[in-house]
Amino acid sequence: MKHRFGLISLILFALSFGAISSRGADVFVYGFEDLPLMTGLSQVVGNSILFDTPQGRIVQATAVGTVSQSSVLQFYTETLPQLGWTIVDGTEFQREGETLKVEFTAEGQKLEVRFLVEPTAN
Hints:
It contains two helices and nine strands, in the order αβββββαββββ. By secondary structure, it is an alpha+beta fold. Strand 1 and strand 2 form a beta hairpin. Strands 3, 4, 5, 6, 7, 8 and 9 form a seven-stranded antiparallel β-sheet that branches. The protein has a two-stranded antiparallel sheet with strand order 1-2. It has one domain.
């Protein structure tokens, strides 16, 4: 019975990964074990912060691309709930005591997207 449960979990994981991949994300944001990098975005190398605190981890990463803010928001509001994140608002998500914020800065034709995970304030 235990073996069957493991197999079912593996199949469910593969299906959820397939759903994410079918939306175009085959790469994960560095520093995040399960935050897919949307197609059209490229991570800014050397601009990531990984820090563990007694309250939880702090992770920050930046990506840029010639994509629209609305397409980025649509991608993450469709994808992140499949990974256990709850939508707080269009740019903030929560899961297991952590808050993920997605912030935007326009630089000419390019959009800079900043991902920040920090412990959820009580």
